[in-house]
Amino acid sequence: MADRPSPFRARAAAARRRLAAAVRRLVAAVRRRAPGPTSRLAAAVHRLEPRSVRTRTTIAACLGVAAVLLVASAAVVLLLRANLVRSVEAGAREQALAVAGTAADGHLPGQLPLGHGTDFIQVTDADGKVVAASQNLAGHPALTTGDEDRDSFDLGVLGDEHHQRVATVTADTPNGPVTIRVGASLHTADTAEDLTTAGLAALSALLVATVGAVTWRATGRALRPVEAIRSEVAGIGDRGLDRRVPEPGSDDEIARLAHTMNAMLDRLEAAGVRQRRFIADASHELRSPLAVLRTQLEVAHTHPDPAVRAEMVAGALQDTDRLQSLAADLLLLARLDAAGHDGPRETLDLAELARTATAGRPRVALHARDGALVLGNRLWLGRLLTNLLDNAQRHARTGTTVRVATDPADGSVLLDVGNDGPPIAPADREKVFERFTRLDDARSRDDGGTGLGLSIARDIAALHGGTLTLVDGPGTTFRTTLPGAGTRPE
What we know:
Blueprint: H1 7-33, H2 37-48, H3 53-104, E1 111-112, E2 118-125, E3 130-134, E4 164-173, E5 176-185, H4 187-234, H5 253-302, H6 306-337, E6 346-349, H7 350-358, E7 364-368, E8 373-376, H8 378-395, E9 400-406, E10 413-419, H9 453-463, E11 467-471, E12 476-482
Parallel strand pairs: 1-3, 7-9
Antiparallel strand pairs: 2-3, 2-5, 4-5, 6-8, 9-10, 10-12, 11-12
Helix pairs in contact: 3-4, 5-6, 6-9, 7-8, 8-9
């Protein structure tokens, strides 16, 4: 009976198998992460790729000009060689025809004279026997044709190796047909081709170098303002928004870029000024009610009279309501300042919104016709109406008037909210829309205003593509102009 393996050996074998599997997984992971030849080549190419726009532009210009010159030079050389070879072939054929005419007349001499540019002449009969030849082929057998080119002959007998063009002509003679072969040298054509190629190569190299130098210099001059803009922008911090990038005197893309950058810096500076002013005004507005609230609570905490404590607590509750209202207005302003945050929109009847907003308010005269449709956010347009009504009632002597109408000229919707209170001076007509602004006759904090109502109303009107302005007339009237539902806001 065979021995059974011990538990220790079984566990050891299982451990070895798990270790081998772990090693295989580790090797596979390393192989997957190890860069292959393609990735290494791509990384090397990426490292060699020029980073500078100036360098890339110069290389691209040089390569483009080199490609054009290469094509043009090749075309010139090919045309030149074709014309020279055609001339050589024409001369060889002309001499072959002249020899054929002499042979046809029966006056073919045994030794033929060579013309200008002609290397050899050989005349053979129908049996391949040489009947006449030039002096350099006298006594030599008939030329043998190569296997690959019918115009290629074994000319080792001439003791010179150079390109040939052979013209072959057949003629009838009194002794039978003969074949006349005249070989013309291409030495002149080859020399002209070599000289032309060398000249074009030198000229092309000079042109490429010139283009590279001109492009490098021109690109450097063109990018110099960009570098100045970059260095200036790099030096602008959150405390240096008053700095501006230099604008070149030219009227090109870089000048427009510098102008756009300066306009953006103007907006950033204005936004920073508004933010700092808003923070300062908010801190000031919050400090006063908090100080009053703390004083009231401290007095109520230490005062022995219950009636006085109750009065102080009631005043503290009023200041708490004011703080809550101020915090809500600040939150709404933050939402209005968020770009593009205008909430869901729907088609609304502004006359219906005005009826809802004026319901339950005393001494409010409403003049509104149905059909004053606008595309907007119901909650925010309701807040606009509420703010205007609160402001109008706060400063009215006897009553407030609300009018909703449609302008027949452009289809816009007009909302007028006015009162019979003291008019606002022309110098203060824009000031009243600034945040935390109270005019001299309206500085009392007992009226419940936070100084943000008109600013919020104007921001809401602007988000809906409209305007909020003061109009001339008795008392004070604020006019909101909104695009009709059939028009799109700007």
